[in-house]
Amino acid sequence: PMPGTITSALRTAQSGLLTNQAALDAVANNIANVNSKGYSRKIVGIETRVVNGTGAGVQIAEITRAIDEGLLKSLRLESSSLSDYEAQQGFYDRIQEIFGTPADNTSISHSISQFTQALQSLALAPEKSVDQTEMVRRAMDMAQKLQDMSTTIQELRLIADQSISSAVAEINRLSTSLGDLNDKIIRNASSGRDVTDLKDQRDQGIDKLAKLIDIRYFYRSDGDVVVFTSSGRTLVDNIPATLTHTAASSVSATTTHAEGDLNGLYVGTAIAGNDITNDVTSGKINGYIELRDTVLPNMQAQLDEMAAEIRDAANQIHNRGMAFPGAQTMTGTRNFISSSTQTMTYSGTEDTAVTLFDNSGDQTATTTIRTLTGGAGPFTVDAMAAALQTWLQANGTSSATVTAASGNLIISLNSTSRNLGFRDQATSTAGSTQGDATISFDANADTVTDETVTGFSNFFGLNDFFVDGLPDNIFETNVLDSTITGSAATLTFRDSTGLLGSVAIAAGDGLAAIAIKVNAANVTVTASVVPDGSGSRLRFSHDNGASMTVTQASGNTLLTTFGLHNADVRVASSLAVRSDISITPSMIASANMQWDATRGTAGEYLVSVGDDATISALAAAFTGTNSFDQSGGLANLTISFEDYGAAILSTSATMSNTNDANRIYQEGLSDSLQLKSDSIRGVNLDEELANLILFEQAYTAAARIVSVIQKMFDALERTVD
Asked: With contact defined as beta carbons under 8 Å apart, do 145 and 642 qualify?
């Protein structure tokens, strides 16, 4: 029995040596990693070793990490939000650089102010070429500024989309790495090896993943971790999922995720059901998605609204007037898909005087559109063009041509001695009160008015000052509440090839339901619900980019209620001064076609060099207020163009400041949680040195026991001998 007892004592002492050696190793590892990022302090759990109910020394129960899992989860949630704000801040800074403030000489509001001042100066001396040139230069500067702002917005959207792709690649790398670490942890833990360092590595991977996308996770009993998005899509499991996103090569104002132009963020197979783009709520990816699909498109929508209002307000007035002594060629900007069937009708007694002038601005011949067409209408665009051509050829411009065959009304006098002008007035009587004529346009020859426009020249766009050169290939509604429903209607789509198809809409159908029905009808038109500010727009786009019409059946009110119109999207990036005016500023329509009752036998029309009627009206329009529709988060506003420009800049600056304030707050919160976590998981050198002494003494004592037992064995051997 004595040798057995001595042997047991030796084994007990040996366990003390091994256990305290392992504890010393852990302490040494803690001290060595005191400055290692992501390292968690290791705690050695020691317990009594029991054999057959009897104490047989000591052993390592487990090596654990000093962490607070609840705190880590909170930290990851907050760091995910912080990364969201940080991702956006750099973009906001870039936007502020190009947008500036209203007081900056390079801002859009300043450009509008300069243009307005140039209009006012020209109104004082409309015949001065210097002022004409300055006015055109300021108009071009304003249009260029809108283009530059639009270009920057779309460049940033492209960068955001590409950043999503880069983040997806990093997520896939981290997911694979976490899956590998899961396997190592399970394998090593099952064989009794220490896995705390592997868990530290895994925690660092989860930390990085949380900064990229909103995640949730849980641990299984075998020690592996399952990571999924907050919407429930698995990222890390036994078989890690793969995220995919193919970045766009180019982006424009019409490129949207809602319309399918931008690829989704897919978990697994790239099908619609796996697209989590709209489910992501935080992390860098959410910041990029917010920028690409919401923040930047809203800014673009505001610019497009302003550009469209500038275009429409200026053109409405410019079309009323004429340059001295009139025009010899006119090219309309309105697109006709079927000028042989599309009709126009005058309202009430209104009419348009058509007058030829000599090079001195004196009348040589005059008539009216009603006289030429035989009444108020309806008459087709081609019929009106033919009647006008016949009259022009019979009144001093024998080679004149008027045609809409190309899709736009084009008038060419082919004469250097005659000039043409139009004047809307209250009646067909020569010299009656001037005022825009109201014209009803039937786009699909069903006798139902599809659009009402004021001004004959304005209807055709014969004397536009600003042009955008865009086809009528996109129509959209006003900004609507996403829950709105409509009345029953039959929508009909046509282009220059003819009828594309009709789609029946049921009463109670919402925007998404209407879009689904149109897309299912295969009418060469894509319908989509596009976010805009706090609401949405229903948008119809021709698949081939051709001009088209979208009409409703007689008695239907759906499109009227929804405010369907030729979309303003892209206008800011396309707006320009009409090319012949930019080359020859004297073609600015400063004057009006005037009436002098004392001329001739019963009065005549004339154009005078110094007439400032039209240019003064333009100046008044830009100094006064204008009505702007809800767009990009800005409400319906009735303010000046300059003030609307300032509102765009102010909104952008406010959003930037808000994001920065949120970032700073979130940074403080994350830092606070990180500090708490570090205080728990971090290494305290004083504590570790104390543990070092403790385990060292225990090791020394165990070694002393071994030495004593060795002497006992020696004594036993001598006794036996």
From this structure: no
For residue 411, give both structure tokens. Answer: 């008038």
Distance CA 503, CA 634 (A): 33
Structure-token pair, residue 232: 């429930």
Instruction: Extract the tokens encoding 592.
Output: 């009006």
Do you find a cis peptide bond into 378, omega within 30 degrees of 0?
yes
Q: Measured between alpha carbons, how far is 503 from 518 in angstroms, rounded to an integer?
A: 6
What confidence tens digit (pLDDT) does each residue in 109-129 have? 999 999 999 999 999 999 999
Distance between CA 251 and CA 159 in Å, rounded? 10
Q: Distance between CA atoms of 592 and 578, rounded to whole angstroms?
A: 19
Mean pLDDT of 269-284: 93
Sign of CA dihedral 228, 534, 155, 540: positive
Neighbour count for residue 4 (Cβ, 10 Å): 8
Q: How far apart are CA 496 and CA 505, in angstroms?
A: 24
Q: Tell me the per-residue pLDDT of 391-445, one tens digit each, with 9 for 90 and over.
A: 999 999 999 999 999 999 999 999 999 999 999 999 999 999 999 999 999 999 9
- Which amino acid type is present at position 314? A
Structure tokens at 90: 């750099």
Peptide bond into 3 cis (omega under 30): no
Element (DSSP H or E) covering residue 549: strand 548-552
The two tokens of residue 603 are 């009065």
The two tokens of residue 381 are: 């665009």
| Residues in CB range of 217: below 8 A, 6 or more apart | 206, 225, 226, 227, 228, 236
**Cβ–Cβ < 8 Å for 514, 527:** yes
Q: Residue 402 phi/psi, 5° resolution?
A: -135, 120
Rg of the chain over Cα atoms, rounded to whole angstroms, equals 39
Site of tokens 């009430």? 348
**Joined tokens for residue 47:** 């317990």
Nearest residue to 216 via CA among 282, 260, 268: 282
Q: Which amino acid is at 116?
A: T
Question: Which H/E stretch holds residue 300?
Answer: helix 296-318
CA 573 – CA 587 distance, rounded (Å): 24
Q: What is the pLDDT of residues 627-636, one digit of tens each?
A: 999 999 999 9
Residue type, 645: G
Assigned CATH for 474-569: 2.60.40
Question: H helices of 125-243, where?
Answer: 129-190, 196-212
Q: Which residues contact 573 (CB under 8 A, 6 or more apart)?
A: 146, 147, 150, 151, 154, 252, 253
List the chain domain ranges.
2-66+691-720, 71-306+641-671, 328-456, 474-569
HSE-CB for 464 with a 13 A CA cutoff: 22
Number of Cβ atoms within 10 Å of the Cβ of 708: 14
> Rounded to whole angstroms, how far apart are CA atoms 333 and 47?
90
Residue 422 tokens read as 């139009």
